[in-house]
Amino acid sequence: MTASTDDDLYRQGSQYRLWSFTAAELSSIREKVNAHAIAKIKREHASQGLDDQPVEFLSVEEEQDLVLYYCGKVQDMAGVFKLPSHVKATAISYLKRFYLRYSVMEYHPKNILHTCLFLAAKAENHFISIENFTQLLAKVTPESILELEFTVAQALSFTLMVHHAFNPIHGYFLDIQSVFPSRIDEIGVAHDAARRFANDSLFSDVAFMFTPPQIALAALAMANDALIKDYLEVKFGRQSGLLEQLNTVIRNVRTYIEERARELSKERVVAIDKKLYFVSNPGKLRKRKADDDASAVNGDTKKVMTQKVADDLISES
Amino acid sequence: MDGVSRIEDEVCPVCKLDTYMNPSMRFLINTECYHKMCESCVDRIYSQGPAPCPYPNCGKTLRKNRFKRQLFSDVAVEREVDVRKRVAKVFNRRREEFASLSDYNDYLEEVETAIFNLVNKVDVEATEARLEAYEAANRQAIATNASLQTREAENAELLRNLEAERRRQQRAEALEESMAEQELKREVERKVIKELANAREGEAENAVRKAVAAAQKTVQLKKSSARRSARDTSTVSFEAAALSMINTKLATPDARDDLPYDTLEEEEYVNDLYTVGEHYYDPFLDNIENSQQAKAAGFGVRNVYEQLLFEAFMGLGCFIENEKVRHKGAVTT
């Protein structure tokens, strides 16, 4: 037995063992999930005799965009319940992890997100009773949340502990103080800004590809590049290999976070959701086709249909 | 229901005598077939040597010296405990003998399978054969482990006795102390009365105050000296005993002595990337720092510092992109 480092400790945790991937692995998992779901739904359609319909399945990117949209919804709902940021972050992690096991074509995120938030509140020791939880949400019953709870927990392999970047940011806030005692104001401002960037990072895939301290350093660097540069120089100046690796990682994390900073357009989400609607109800496609033919005479049926799906999406979520 | 089973419990199924007729009746069982009978039946049937069990359809040959008291009211439990004891005598390997936990678990599973087979009468012959073969093959190791077990038990017993002895001493001391205190109190009272009797008029109050102060001083002096001497004697005897025990333990050769000494084995890991300071500027933690409740519970702001700094550096050096490449394809959906 040799003494193991704190890094080894992290390597033993579920976040590293089960939920850390390289970029290539991550995209291959998503492709597999997507392909698997398409094959499964095709079989189902065939068994219902609906395989003659030209169903358009969702692509990996479309799935991801939809999940992202619902991550935003989790954020909004966490605001409604006044949940602290780590609960919100855990709920978003659950949602993102869940969709590495299942496709949105199998479980619609509008159902999963409530269960994720409920489960996260429990796991993070911020319990909200199911009655209070459902009271504030329209069209949600205790049963609809609880019946998915096991499915979600199972998809998460029952690993409910999630490490976020918030605590490490706070830790660096303390440690930078001991390195540069005179720059305290600067550090305080950087800390507050870094928490916001850490929040943005929840919408990217960095939590799958980097460890919380690395994300924390990147968020701090986004807030105050010069400060972190000086800090790392003092801290790791002697270990040039590690310093270089850390700088590369920080650069990569920044790119990922900034990439995801753009807003999703509502139209794109509505379009994806419409597609998803026909994937789960191929029978409706037949009807639409008939309507389309009729719309040669009466041009606005299709438009009404699109409007209806959009309304559904907005009212349900 | 209760009444019926009570009567059944007290009637010998062989001679139908009950505890009403013979209040001193005791029931015995034999490990061959676990059929219950009273002591006098055992005497009557088996005094002449081995004889078949008197239960109908049993017919197992029993011997008198194999009869014993029933410890558990459920015969099935009694039997399982016996089997367990027997198997554990043979399969007595220890965790330290295995390189990995999974090896040890495999071994434990094997043992449990053997026990299950014997208890539930599955493959009894094969299992017995395995047991015998194992015993024959590992006679030396079994004996070593058995002696190790007895030594451990002895040590634990010794420690228990020492602890009990220490507690008894402490109790005696406490009692003595309280008696001495009472005696002192009485003495103070006597002194006060004496002072009062001797004091002139008008100075009574002063005299009493002086007497009480003097008496308190002596009380405190006596108390502290008594406590010191008591502590010295008790700790010395306990420490001496513990030391002698450790010495005897060191003198007896350990089974693992032949392993090379690993200097890192007991060394605690300290992350040298950071040190936890005494105080930081942190408006978030001010309320913990100033909270009486937190302090009373033994919690301090330093605990928070430690946790936060630990989390800040836990996994800093895990570069997933480099490390996970070798596991490629291991993760499936």
From TrEMBL, chain A:
One of its GO terms (biological process) is regulation of transcription by RNA polymerase II. It comes from the Eukaryota. The keyword 4Fe-4S does not apply. Keywords: Cyclin. One of its GO terms (molecular function) is cyclin-dependent protein serine/threonine kinase regulator activity. Coiled coil: none annotated. SUPFAM superfamilies: Cyclin-like. Pfam families: Cyclin_C_2 (PF16899), Cyclin_N (PF00134). Residues 72-154 form the Cyclin-like domain. InterPro entries: Cyclin-like_dom (IPR013763), Cyclin-like_sf (IPR036915), Cyclin/Ssn8 (IPR043198), Cyclin_C_2 (IPR031658), Cyclin_N (IPR006671). The keyword Disulfide bond does not apply. Belongs to the cyclin family. This is Cyclin-like protein.
Automatic annotation (TrEMBL), chain B:
Residues 12-57 form the RING-type domain. It is found in: Nucleus. One of its GO terms (biological process) is regulation of transcription by RNA polymerase II. The keyword Coiled coil applies. It comes from Lipomyces tetrasporus. This is RNA polymerase II transcription factor B subunit 3. Its main location: nucleus. One of its GO terms (molecular function) is kinase activity. It comes from the Eukaryota. The keyword Zinc-finger applies. Residues 124-192 form a coiled coil. GO terms for cellular component: transcription factor TFIIK complex. Keywords: Coiled coil, Kinase, Metal-binding, Nucleus, Transferase, Zinc, Zinc-finger. InterPro entries: MAT1/Tfb3, MAT1_centre, Znf_RING, Znf_RING/FYVE/PHD, Znf_RING_CS. It holds the Pfam family MAT1.
